[in-house]
């Protein structure tokens, strides 16, 4: 281990703790000494203070990210300085430890690092996982999942309903240091408001009528592992305040309990809604959004990965048939063509539902287009996208143009109208984007 701190007593405390865990530690007083030691030795963890005589911890985090990519780095932040902690996590830090340093938290952090799989092992393990497809959008999502799995930073997963946000969260958990501990998924929109605090934090016996025994909440159940907050935008404002405190302090208080308990969980959140718009509308706390959106992972819609539809369809149909104890029918070219042209407003989840229905209703060994019972294109278009006032879309080309136009506009907004960055986000060349914008009348 490498300990970087300009205070001798802090260095001695950290080294003593690591030694008692059976680990060796080198020490550095500043960034220059740390760089020299990093060039001479291989370490399993770098633990650095944020404030150093000749620089700061963020500088060291970035240097390690560029020069020692497999080395996890954790930062020690001043008490109450969550801004610095978030900045460090955004810069690539594995985790943070607030001052005064809790030896319990430090030991938990070190144990997590020691369980972290190598990049090669993560890549090999993820190769056989369930996020299928070879389109550029899916490859980018898969690469991002592998990257964030090597961190403890909160992850915010955005994307349309049915695009695989929970699957991405599970992959992040399974490829990371917490994979041997629980993964607890919570649908925030399905919990009655009056039960939220007791469901999230637990309660003590006698705390309220019906509390006959002590009960753990979601945070305690996920201790050591990952807490996935799906549809986090549906949390009421009062609960958002309590959640923010639990995330920042890493402590929760059961309803009716006199004291708080330490919890060690990684937070992954997701919603199909636009959280930034909800913040602007005063429906979601900005400080909580800032805390959740340390790293954003965007899951693409199925419309952005049309070339993956045949692979996804065949794999899904084979899995459903196996689960039902039936031979898998073959998807004919007409069926694949129909699926390829369908807009899929419900994304991968809708594809699975269509194939499950098809398997139940089809008795032959082949599936043709008519067996899929796809909704008429005009109905599917209405579900996939809001209608344009005064205009009736009747052709496939009109529909595809609208999808393409919306995707380009969204990419331009996300990149602040930087066309080069927008092209990269869309997975096309700059020349291709320029041509498409000209064809769609977007150059104005």
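^ structure tokens above, recovered residues below v
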């Amino acid at each position: 281990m490498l300990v970087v701190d300009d205070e001798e007593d802090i260095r001695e405390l950290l080294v003593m703790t690591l030694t008692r865990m059976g680990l060796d530690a080198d020490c550095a007083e500043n960034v220059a000494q740390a760089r020299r030691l990093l060039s001479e030795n291989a370490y399993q963890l770098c633990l650095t203070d944020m404030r150093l005589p000749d620089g700061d911890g963020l500088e060291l985090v970035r240097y390690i990210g560029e020069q020692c990519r497999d080395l996890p780095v954790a930062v020690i932040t001043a008490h109450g300085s969550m801004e610095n902690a978030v900045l460090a996590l955004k810069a690539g830090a594995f985790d943070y430890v607030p001052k005064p340093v809790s030896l319990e938290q430090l030991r938990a952090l070190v144990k997590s690092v020691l369980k972290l799989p190598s990049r090669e092992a993560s890549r090999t393990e993820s190769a056989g996982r369930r996020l299928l497809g070879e389109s550029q959008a899916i490859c980018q999502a898969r690469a991002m999942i592998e990257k964030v799995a090597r961190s403890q930073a909160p992850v915010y997963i955005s994307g349309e309903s049915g695009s695989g946000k929970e699957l991405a969260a599970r992959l992040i958990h399974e490829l990371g240091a917490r994979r041997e501990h629980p993964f607890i998924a919570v649908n925030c929109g399905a919990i009655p408001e009056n039960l939220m605090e007791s469901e999230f934090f637990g309660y003590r016996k006698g705390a309220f009528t019906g509390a006959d025994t002590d009960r753990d909440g979601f945070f305690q159940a996920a201790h050591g592992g990952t807490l996935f907050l799906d549809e986090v935008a549906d949390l009421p404002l009062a609960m958002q305040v309590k959640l923010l405190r639990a995330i920042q302090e890493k402590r929760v208080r059961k309803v009716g309990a006199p004291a708080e308990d330490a919890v060690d969980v990684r937070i992954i959140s997701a919603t199909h809604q636009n959280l930034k718009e909800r913040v602007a509308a005063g429906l979601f706390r900005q400080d909580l959004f800032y805390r959740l959106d340390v790293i954003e992972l965007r899951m693409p819609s199925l419309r952005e990965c049309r070339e993956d539809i045949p692979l996804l369809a065949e794999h899904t149909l084979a899995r459903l048939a196996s689960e039902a104890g039936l031979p898998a029918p073959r998807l004919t070219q007409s069926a694949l063509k129909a699926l390829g042209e369908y807009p899929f407003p419900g994304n991968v989840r809708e594809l699975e539902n269509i194939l499950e229905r098809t398997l139940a209703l089809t008795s032959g060994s082949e599936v043709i287009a008519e067996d899929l019972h796809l909704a008429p294109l005009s109905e599917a278009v209405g579900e996939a996208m809001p209608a344009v006032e005064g205009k009736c879309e009747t052709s496939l080309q009109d529909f595809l143009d609208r999808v393409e136009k919306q995707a380009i506009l969204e990419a331009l907004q996300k990149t602040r109208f930087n066309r080069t960055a927008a092209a990269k986000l869309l997975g096309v060349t700059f020349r291709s984007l320029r041509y498409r914008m000209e064809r769609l009348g977007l150059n104005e």
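The chain has a mean pLDDT of 87.
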